[in-house]
Design brief:
Number of strands: 7
Radius of gyration: 21 Å
Order of helices and strands: HHHHHEEEEEEEHHHHH
Strand order of the largest sheet: 2-3-7-6
Strand content: 5-15%
């Protein structure tokens, strides 16, 4: 395994190529898409055509044969250009990874080529109204009825269901030996009877919409179950670790974009004799933001390399730390960038004010910073639980 701190020549070339693609679209493209109520179809299609969407998926199913290292790089660079694709977190990173690692051969042939070439998308449904970050409190249940599965339950804050061909739903089945409920994953096509969705109004300007899902006696064939019924927890966390790593990439890209705008402004904005960036009260907070983003980036690289190396336990710790660090760094970078521009930081012309809300998403989703602190205090430090 190569050194995660020093990127390979191939990785640098991929980073440059994705950055060039992002530059052709930029923040203005995303703003237009949001204003017109559309989706990022053009950018998604071009990224797919260049092989970026499936860079982490196996070559035998049309992917690039890389891993989360490469896919996180793609998302970070698009974000740094001002045009991140949230569905990269969900479709190829979570769903594609889970199916590639645990799916049946038929599931792999059915879904992976389309996820790799962008012609198909998948959403991921885990969060519930009453469970929140407690994945052990999931109440969506799946019961066997002959050769079929029947699902009932609710999900909230599920991204991109309207543009996804199917949703990978996390439910729970009863263990016949113990009577306890255990997590399992099911592929639920969008038009399955009993599978309903309703949009959630959000104070967030993003192309991807959020939905509440209802599963009312949703009947699925036996082959809708992903992998082994008895390995559901392993399969679930195989998707959650990439989710956290990709969320870190999303946040880092956002933070880099905001910081670049602020640095350019501080370098050229002149109120007194020198540009405002010559004053330490302006320069030092921007330098601090840069340092924090770089430190978070190193942890994200570590997490991605550990995951791709198959060390799920170590990757779990690093992925949570990376997500925490990147979210905190992004929030501070965006806040300082807006502050650097003063009144201009709140104008549509500079496009930074809307990022104040967007940056906080990484602190909240897919798991709150408080739950990450719980994870680290329990798993890393060995402290007792309070719940």
């Amino acid at each position: 395994m190569s050194n995660p701190v020093i990127e390979t020549e191939e990785h640098r070339a991929l980073r440059d190529a994705v950055a060039a693609l992002g530059k052709r679209y930029g923040r203005e493209y995303i703003a237009t898409v949001v204003a017109e109520g559309k989706h990022t179809d053009e950018l998604w299609a071009e990224a797919a055509g260049l092989g970026y969407l499936g860079v982490n998926l196996p070559e035998e199913y049309g992917g690039g044969g890389g891993g989360i290292v490469e896919l996180s790089l793609v998302l970070e660079e698009l974000g740094a250009a001002g045009c991140p694709l949230l569905m990269l977190v969900v479709s190829p990173a979570i769903c594609g990874t889970v199916i590639a690692r645990f799916g049946t051969e038929e599931q792999k042939r059915t879904w992976l080529p389309g996820l790799a070439d962008g012609s198909r998308k998948m959403a991921f449904g885990i969060t519930e109204p009453d469970a929140g970050s407690n994945s052990h409190g999931i109440t969506t249940t799946a019961r066997k009825d002959g050769d079929e599965w029947v699902l009932n339950g609710r999900k909230v804050f599920i991204s991109g269901v309207d543009i996804a061909d199917a949703t990978l739903i996390v439910g729970r089945t009863e263990d016949a030996r113990t009577g306890r409920l255990k997590p399992c994953l099911f592929i639920v096509p969008r038009d399955t009877p009993g599978f309903g969705r309703s949009p959630i109004a959000m104070e967030l300007a993003a192309p991807e919409k959020q939905f509440e899902l209802t599963l009312d006696e949703v009947r699925l064939p036996a082959e809708a179950l992903v992998g082994d019924e008895d390995a559901g927890l392993l399969q679930l966390f195989a998707g959650l670790n990439p989710e956290r790593i990709m969320t870190a990439a999303f946040a880092l890209g956002m933070g880099r974009y905001a910081l670049d705008r602020a640095v350019d402004y501080a370098r050229t904005r002149q109120v007194w004799k020198e540009p405002i960036g010559a004053h330490q009260a302006i320069a030092h907070p921007l330098a601090q933001a840069h340092i924090e983003l770089e430190l978070a980036h190193l942890m994200m690289q570590k997490a991605a390399y550990l995951y791709d190396a198959g060390d799920d336990m170590a990757a779990g710790e690093a992925a949570n730390m990376a997500k925490y660090a990147a979210a905190e760094a992004a929030v501070r970078a965006v806040d300082q960038s807006v502050h650097t521009l003063g009144g201009n930081g709140l104008t549509q012309e500079y496009g930074l004010a809307s990022m104040i809300t967007a940056a906080r998403v990484a602190r909240i989703a897919p798991v709150s910073r408080e739950m990450i602190l719980n994870f680290v205090s329990h798993q890393s430090l060995g402290l007792p639980k309070s719940y």
